[in-house]
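To start, an entry.
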Amino acid sequence: MSLKQSLGKVTLIDFWASWCAPCRKENPNVVALYKELHSKGLNIIGVSLDKDAAKWKEAIVKDQLQWNHVSNLQFWDEPIAKEYGVESIPSTFLLDSKGTIVAKNLYGAELKAKILELLAK
C-alpha cells in the first residue's frame, strides 16, 4: 500500500497497537470521525506496532476500524513508526492532500476541529 495512493483531502496516520489500552480507548473517537468525515475527504491509515497478527486483526474487527491498516509485526521496530519518529502510542499525524504533515498528536475534539478546518480549504 502506498501513502500517495491513500491520500485524501486530509489523511490521518494513526499509530496504535492491540495491546495499547490508551489506543483502544481512543479508537471509538476515531471510528466516529471516520464515519462522519470519510465521505467529505478524510482518509485514515492505521499503522500497528503489534507483534501478533491474530491479535492485531482481532482488534481491528472488535473496534470496527474500517480503514486501511498496515503492520510489519515488528513491535517498536516498525519501520513506518521509525520513519515518523514515533516514540509512544497512540500517536497521530495529520497530513494535507499533498502528504505534508500539518499536525501531530491531536485527539478528540481538538483532532476533529483541525480535520474540519483542513477539509474546509
Notes: The chain has a mean pLDDT of 93. Strands lie at 10-16, 42-48, 68-70, 91-96, 101-104.
